[in-house]
Every structure is written in structure tokens, then in C-alpha cells.
Amino acid sequence: MTLRGQVRNAEALGRMLQQGRMLHGMSQRQLAEQLGIGQKWVWEMEQGKPGLLTERLFEMLRATGVRLYAEVDEPEEDAHPSELSSDE
User: Per the database record, which ranges form the HTH cro/C1-type domain (predicted)?
Assistant: First the structure.
């Protein structure tokens, strides 16, 4: 099963990221450790906390009529969360 949705704002992006993390059976802490970042940053992204980059990104998308979509694929049955690459 693939989840797909239009990402219209930082909150929608955060929800998609959260769904992807949860489908891969990872906690925020595990994801943060895998990426070499703080767990607070993962939480802030999933909550759609405004930031300069995301605000400008979504302003540009709206101004140019570009739509952003995200898809969340279920992990392969034999893949362990620590074996997944960050670009999956």
C-alpha cells in the first residue's frame, strides 16, 4: 500500500514524514540517530514548525503554481529499519 498526498504546507509535509517514519517502525529518536540529528528536529519537522526554508519553499510553490506530492511506501517485509537508506 502506498500513501499519497498533496503537500500544500509544512504541516502536511510533517504528517507525511511522520507516516513514513511510523510505517518503517521507527521512533523519532531512532530516525534522529540514523540521520545524525537531534530528536527535537525530527519532532519539529513532523509538527510542521515554521522555518525560513519551508516558508519560502511553500511561498514559491504557490507563486509558481507548482504542486508538491509525497508518497509513502510500505517497507519491504525483510527490511529492518536500521537497514533502510535515508533516500527511501
Answer: 17-72
Largest CA distance in the chain: 43
- Can you count the helices (H) and strands (E) in the chain? 4, 2
Q: Tell whether 80 is covered by a domain.
A: no
User: What is the value of pTM for the model shown?
Assistant: 0.78
Q: Mind listing the pLDDT tens digit of every residue in the chain (88 residues)?
A: 677 889 999 999 999 999 999 999 999 999 999 999 999 999 999 999 988 999 999 999 999 999 999 999 888 765 554 444 444 4
Q: Is residue 63 part of a domain?
A: yes
Query: The domain that contains 29 carries what CATH number?
Result: 1.10.260.40
C-alpha cell belonging to residue 31: 530516525
Domain extent for 19: 2-74
